[in-house]
Amino acid sequence: MNVFVVNVGSGSLKLRVLNRNDDVVASEDLARPEPAALADVLGAFLDGHHDIDAAGHRVVHGGARFTRSLLLDESAEGALGELADLAPLHNPPALAAIEALTELRPELRQVACFDTAFHAKMPARASTYAVPREWRDRWGIRRFGFHGLSHSWASRRAAEILGTPIDQLRVVTAHIGAGASLAAVSAGRSVDTTMGFTPMEGLVMATRSGSVDPGLVLWLQRHGGLSADEVQYTLEHESGLLGLAGSSSLHDVMDAMDEGDQDARLAYEVYVYRLQGSIAAMTAAMGGIDALVFTGGAGEREPRLRADTCAGLAFLGVGALTHRNDESGGDRLISPGDIAVLVVAAREDIEIAGHVRQLLS
Q1: CATH of residue 254
Q2: Which of 29, 115, 252, 290 is catalytic?
Q3: Which of 114, 129, 154 is the last residue of a domain?
């Protein structure tokens, strides 16, 4: 089965065609087009790739209803539309891509693969917020977690590299990109993660604040005169590294820090500090750690970030990184100590293709 993988990110569109062996036979990475232009972009890509048996879409938020991959039809698409406000940067564009592809290839079977599904069976102690039962029952409020497709792949790939069955490993996977989250993966299952009800909770990110005191949000509305929409937009689009240092690029922030920019230094220190503390929390969720895996854009490409993060985790038993940390590209072991540290390329496309084949078989 040749699978067309459509991965619509907050600012990007990644298109892949994977054959039965998961070899990439066609690919294109683009800035995310406007919804009205999606049909043209997808059509242009598909013009040269007619031998496609099915399509798989990354959908960030499945809510409480969708806890596994789903064969799409009109009713399913309508239900997905109701979840748009839970992940406004991601779900609406993904739904637009589904609709555009339906117009282009109405006979093509399409599957939605949810980032939240990997975390759906987290223990209640990790998924439950301490809010009234009425809220939890009425609105399905819980910690959902995200980047599940990436966390699932990174943990399984780490087990392959280490030559150890995944059911014998406790792995912290660190997906560090524009959006960033950690997962505690014990015996192949997510038992905790840093993102919550929406993708805003947890680590400091490129433009997202990560976790803040909910009292701060209320104070800004009551005393700052900001509307709910204004607070949400600022926390989503104008916070994180951008809010601290004026740039959403971690690489640029590090360059500015080296040139003496004190705002950039503070931004980097806050970023790494929150990352280290959250890795320790994920370790506690499993009662220990056997491997730490860096993946995602910055996780794969920034050796300094990996080195600085690990330097503060010696108390957990994380050892010094080898020269392989400074290499570029390729899945690899960069610290072979009692706690292995690895770099794994994010391959959500393989994960999605696998879900599609499993569902349609």
Answers
A1: 3.30.420.40
A2: 115
A3: 114
- The pTM for the full model equals 0.94
Q: Look up residue 72 and give its two tokens.
A: 């799409």
The answer to whether residue 91 scores a pLDDT higher than 90 is: no
pLDDT digits over 251-288, tens only?
Answer: 999 999 999 999 999 999 999 999 999 999 999 999 99
DSSP assigned state of 224 = S
* Cα–Cα distance measured from residue 149 to residue 355, given in angstroms and rounded to the nearest whole number: 10
Alpha helices in the chain, H assignment, sequence order: 38-46, 74-81, 91-104, 124-127, 133-139, 148-162, 214-222, 228-237, 240-245, 250-258, 262-286, 297-301, 303-311, 348-360
- Which two tokens mark 187? 């015996």
Give the 3-state secondary structure percentages of the chain, helix then strand then coil, rounded to 5.
Answer: 45, 20, 35
pLDDT in tens, 337-354: 999 999 999 999 999 999
Q: How far is CA 340 from CA 305, 316, 328, 345, 347, in A?
A: 17, 12, 18, 16, 20
Q: Which residues pair with 335 in a beta bridge?
A: 341
Burial class (CB in 10 A: 0-12, 13-18, 19+), 164: middle
Indicate if 115 belongs to the active site.
Answer: yes
Give the domain range for residue 189: 163-348
Domains: count for the chain: 2
* Residue 182 and residue 297 in one domain: yes
Cα–Cα distance, 111 to 117 (Å, whole number): 14
